[in-house]
Amino acid sequence: MSHSLRSARARVRAAYTGEHIMAARQGVGRNGDLGLDRCSLPQQRLRTLLATHLFNAGDTGVLVGSSIVSTLTHCTLTMSPRFDDLVVVAECPTNVLGYLVPNGVGKDTAELPGLRLSHLDDNETYRLVHLPTGARMTVTGRRRTLFDDSCFASYSGASRDGRRWWTPDVPLTPTERDSLRFNPVPPDGVAQILRALVTRLSARDVSGRWAIGYWFYDPLGRARPTGFNDYRLRRRLIGAGPHWHLQWNGYPYPKDVTAMLLDTTAGLPGINATGTGRSFDLVLSGSGRKSFGVTRPGRVRRAGVGSRRVARGVGLSVRVVRSGPVGR
Predict the structure, then answer these.
(1) Is the peptide bond before 187 cis (omega within 30 degrees of 0)?
(2) CA distance to 43, 170, 207, 214, 312, per residue, from 49 (Å)
(3) pTM exceeds 0.90
């Protein structure tokens, strides 16, 4: 790809993701795509795992074991995905690190299972590695995400705030193994949609038609959703086999999630939609007959029950119930 074309695509990507244009340029795909979805197999597995923890929050989450990873959506984040690295730009990177990597001496963990701190520099940039997959993740406060590798050192010992982060030499604990073993893994098509939601946590339409707002607030300043509660945010991702359902009781608006995935510039390729108003069926072509439901708020139902039949592909049904908390 020519330098001018890469720069042009980087400007488009940055306009949607909120990245610095230099960061966006490092993530643009070699074939001219924005690079939000194309990634290595280890990255696919890491991002899918991250999604299952981000989208189970509050007392309705269904994960085996405890997880504090969903608290990340309370932080100001800019996602900057690369083919072989998931870069997270944060206002307070050390705080973000605390929801991802265990620290201290105990065996019970509530962070992302298997994630470890491998390297750091003097400016709160942390390089992480996921033990089960080898996938890389970077948490930084630098918007340009231009790093001098000579400034990084292998992490060992306590940090400046006295915390002792777990490093790659710390093996998986029984708690982490149980989490990885017993929490169901979405099939490829559903996982592809979930990964798209992760890499677009901070995305917003350049024309102001939709915005995601880290799944925590509305950047467009519209009226609050019915049933919204600042102190009782809940999300629930549940499913087995080909049928999955995602439910939440706050931001973003379901129509924004749909519009984002369908966006001709920054959306997920292969998505098609039917329906209007409060009910949508999205189909990701070429992934077999799989169903992925999305509801905000209301009672959780078995995904696919009561929804329109999807003929082929991965179905993403979007429905809004006007009142009531997320069901248990």
Answers:
(1) no
(2) 10, 20, 32, 17, 25
(3) no
